[in-house]
Design a protein that fits this description.
The protein is of the alpha/beta class. Helix content is 42%, strand content 15%. Helix 9 (191-212) packs across helix 13. The longest helix is centred in the middle third of the chain and has 22 residues, at 191-212. The two termini are 34 Å apart.
């Protein structure tokens, strides 16, 4: 069998840069998203602790002779480092001792801390000044070479207001790409094999990963029910009570708020769930802004697999398709935004005026994005919503938005409307 050809990732350049800024880099993200392979492109030595034998020997070495475990050509990779939590403090001390950049790369599919959604408490190891962090997700369409990249997000922030792009995907194509997801191992496989990857991922989450990361036994059936509920509630600000009601209506089991919170925290800790924070901006009026997080999986294929949906199922349920396409679009926007030192939030106020995604840069610039499957009517409604929000924003304090964009699943071209609003198919976008 021929070796798989490595597809360059947006994270490659970022990792190279971060290794020049810090003694160690932690690459975090869901399993199967390509963290290890990305790290191996630059690592000069490695300890692969996903291998049980290597893990046993490494634990013994960590207990008896940590300096030898840390020795090796640099950057030295420790894959799934959280299996030996003492590594963190030891590497931090070793970075201080060496006084050199780019010494270690750590990858992890789980974090050794819990986050409480209600009060945002965190317990974590300190790595300030020694560690840099790199978040990886499943592949965006640009990384999987399924976007033409004719519209650059960075160029929009730099003032490019004339866009040209031609989309090659129709709605059924997007349905397949959504159900397949951005898992690197699925990208080059035949369609039937590629679609199975997300189902295998669900099995791994429910049968093992959600319990193994903190040695807390969790019921696989409860986990599957919760994943199905979260799939039905994608792109919403569903509270614990809303999730509980959904479970009571659609599932054979019910969960208490405490149990829902425990399972959600576990799913965040293994990077399955990645909720989006609200944008709290300055407005011209005294409109109250909703501050609840919007619920998303890290990849839309998790939702379709949890619900047992195929691309054909999505084509016959455009409402569900639209919600899950938003998850796909948010995945790509997050990947692209972080590539240009940005992040993504959402907006909703008491009048139910919403903006699906607000892309921010470090310098304070921002762009407004509405996400739609496509079609003239939905694009026009998104355009009206973006303009309405634009008028509410106190631009004297936060500046004008760099762009207003309707990000679509379909449409032949990327183009600008008369008022400057951009219409961009997801198959034309890149960082």
């Amino acid at each position: 069998m021929e070796d798989l050809v490595y597809k360059p990732r947006i994270a490659d350049a970022r990792l190279d840069f971060l290794l020049r800024t810090a003694g160690a880099v932690l690459i975090k993200g869901p399993k199967w998203c390509g963290k290890t392979t990305t790290a191996q492109q630059i690592a000069q030595s490695q300890v692969m602790m996903a291998d049980p034998q290597i893990l046993r020997e490494s634990r013994q070495m960590a207990e008896n002779d940590m300096p030898t475990l840390l020795a090796g050509q640099t950057p030295r990779l420790f894959d799934e480092w959280q299996a030996i939590p003492d590594l963190w403090d030891s590497i931090r001390s070793e970075v201080d001792r060496r006084h050199k950049k780019g010494q270690f790369i750590l990858t992890g599919s789980a974090v050794p801390y819990q986050e409480d959604e209600e009060d945002n408490r965190r317990i974590n190891h300190s790595g300030a000044g020694r560690f840099a962090w790199l978040r990886m997700r499943p592949m965006s369409l640009w990384e999987s070479e399924e976007s033409t990249g004719e519209v650059s997000l960075l160029s929009l922030f730099e003032g490019q207001n004339k866009i040209v792009g031609q989309n090659k995907w129709n709605l059924s194509d997007i349905a397949f790409l959504l159900c397949r997801g951005g898992w690197p191992s699925a990208i080059s496989e035949p369609k039937d094999v590629a679609l199975e990857t997300a189902f295998s991922y669900i099995d791994a989450i429910t049968e093992s990963d959600i319990s193994r990361f903190d040695d807390t036994l969790r019921n696989p059936d409860r986990c599957r029910s919760l994943l199905r509920s979260l799939a039905r509630l994608q792109a919403s600000q569903a509270s614990y009570s809303v999730i509980r009601e959904d479970l009571m209506t659609n599932e054979p089991i019910t969960l208490s708020d405490k149990t829902i919170g425990s399972y959600l925290n576990a799913l965040r800790s293994i990077y399955v769930v990645e909720d989006m924070k609200a944008w709290n901006t300055n407005l011209r009026s005294k409109t109250a802004i909703r501050t609840s997080d919007t619920r998303y999986f890290v990849d839309p294929s998790i939702a379709t697999a949890a619900l047992g949906l195929s691309p054909d199922d999505l084509m016959h349920d455009l409402n569900t398709f639209g919600l899950l396409f938003e998850t796909m679009a948010v995945r790509d926007l997050r990947v692209y935004a972080e590539a240009i030192n940005g992040f993504v939030s959402h907006y909703r106020d008491k009048d139910n005026l919403e903006c699906d995604a607000v892309v921010h840069l470090r310098n304070g610039r921002y762009g407004l994005v509405e996400i739609k499957l496509g079609g003239t009517y939905s694009v026009e409604e998104a355009q009206k919503s973006l303009n309405k929000l634009h008028k509410k924003i106190d631009t004297d304090k936060v500046g004008e938005p760099a762009f207003r964009m309707v990000l679509t699943a379909t449409g032949m071209y990327a183009y600008a409307l008369k008022d400057g609003t951009l219409v961009v198919p997801i198959g034309c976008l890149k960082p």
